Amino acid sequence: MGNLMGSWRYKEPSTVEECDSTWETDSESDELQPGGEEEDTEQLDHGSPKVPHHTPALKDNKEETITMKTFGDMMESSTRMKRSFYAAKDLYKYRHSYPNYKEPRRPNEYRNLRFYLNKIPLVPDGIYIEEILTKWRGDYEKLEHNHTYIQWLFPLREQGLNFYAHELTQDEIKEFQSTREAKRRFLLAYTIMLDFFGIKLLDKNGNVARATNWQDRFQHLNESQHNYLRITRILKSLGELGFESFKLPLVHLLLEEALVEGTLPNMRHSALEYFIYTLRQHSQRRALLRFAQRHYQPPENFIWGPPKKKRIPAFGSTGMKSGKNEVVEKSVGKARSPREGRNNLEREADDIDDRKSGEWKTVKGSKVLQEGRGRVDLEECIETIPL
């Protein structure tokens, strides 16, 4: 038969729909049009003009119909935006392990692993991992303004801004994942960055919550948006080095703060365009997107949900909708306040579990986890995580 795989050629996706398979395996999407999200949906646009709540009364119905159609077309063309193809393609390649990617030709020295074993310093600063882990925690000025360490702490199979940092290779990833000391230090580096963001790691399952310094750090994080690129990199690196399960709790917390609590409003677009799509499991992405859809404002601008179903009128009835579709429309149409969403978080998570078995079960209020408990020593916490 010959080598069939040898003749296979990877085809680059050319649209957002080709990059996003989030809803393809969803049982609620059996009747959906193929291709993913709708093309003509609106995206959040802070600079877009607002549609007035009232329009002047016109003299006759014909004139009113023409004017409203013209006005609607104008507003639609001025506010309509689409999802970022760049973001969709970037995360598609990551989730599919960089198809058609060629490993670096230079000799593989496992430089990322050696750095985490404290055998070589990061370049160009000449700093060893142990110095970062013991002296950089809480030094927010250094963590904010130094831009060379992040590529070493959270390596990927792609080149970052620090060209001295080496891309991961598949062989190095396997070696890293089997090296306990490297993984222990990696988790400590993760906790340092979480603390920088105002978040703390709670347990061996990757659950997170607000840290004691969350107010100041969230205010900083909301204003310094270049850190959103760092969060995307951290999420990717977690998946590469054996901590895929840690992504979901972190992304959910960030979504909750951005959409429900309103502490990180500037982050919501990055969370929806990038953070969610670092998760490799369809069911996890769907659960997060359903959560976001219930709290997004204005709801009509939410473009990351499932595509609309084909409307096939039934005999003797027009506008008949299935029960599931009514649930979706009600959840979108009834926008809840942040306080109301917070109080109903646990019930909404249970609704998701009832509809979709196997999807992630939301923890009741990540900020109330371990309330009243003393501060857990980080080293002790890390030691409880199976490496």
Automatic annotation (TrEMBL):
Positions of region (Disordered): 1-60, 325-357
GO-annotated cellular components: membrane
Domain (Opioid growth factor receptor (OGFr) conserved) ranges: 107-310
One Pfam family per UniProt: OGFr_N
Alphabetized GO MF terms: opioid growth factor receptor activity
Alphabetized InterPro entries for the sequence: OGF_rcpt, OGFr
Compositionally biased region (Acidic residues): 15-42
Protein family according to the UniProt entry: Belongs to the opioid growth factor receptor family.
PANTHER family the record matches: OPIOID GROWTH FACTOR RECEPTOR OGFR ZETA-TYPE OPIOID RECEPTOR, OPIOID GROWTH FACTOR RECEPTOR-LIKE PROTEIN 1
Name of the protein in its database record: Opioid growth factor receptor like 1
Gene (UniProt): LOC107585376
